Amino acid sequence: SENGYFGYATKLEGSDEFNGQIVDITMGEYGSLAIDKEGNLWGWGYSWYKSLLDMTSDGGKIGPTKSKTIQNAMYVSMGRGSAAVQLSNGETYVWGLDENGKLGLGSDRGYSYGTKQYIGNDIAKVIFFEQEGYMIKNDKTLWVAGRDDYYGLGQSNTSVNRYNWTQVFTDDSADKEEVKVRELAPQYRGMMIIAEDEKVYSVGYNNY
After folding, report:
1. Whole-prediction pTM
2. How far, in Å, are 11, 93, 96, 148 from residue 76 at the CA level?
3. Which one of 37, 51, 84, 207 has the fewest beta carbons within 10 angstroms of its own beta carbon?
4. CA 127 → CA 38, 61, 132, distances in Å?
């Protein structure tokens, strides 16, 4: 919106060719991504930190535009300048802002990836929040990357940023257990988890 706000449901301009065709959709801080029934990835908005991948070369605002490098997409998610997509063959890719290592690619360069980066083929879902990444694998185990502020990534008493995907356990004892996730609700400096055994876990900043 040129005025910055929509106070009611408003049809996206230029969206006629995929109206009624969308199977998954996500919104980031300044842009959106969607997948149509044919597995094509679409993006619109502002490509902040290259979060719209190859759909705009100058990072400016765009209307609905189809990616030339992503086909057979099944699932897509966005966060603060970052995005992830899973393809029909099970491969998962990330791109965009690697803030505090939240893409799990092994570095904290603050670099923005304008091309897709492969992270695995055993992943059910990837969620990005602000400077944190959360990965649920097909076996329901939980993995995290990025800023571990106030122990919000569930890594015991070590509040250190994670530049690689790191598994979450119930504790750091010798008989620690894997956290198997049914539902995950990440938030600033923490997360809530419903585990497969129906236990509820809370992690992170316990103010108020």
Report:
1. 0.89
2. 21, 10, 13, 24
3. 207
4. 23, 24, 8
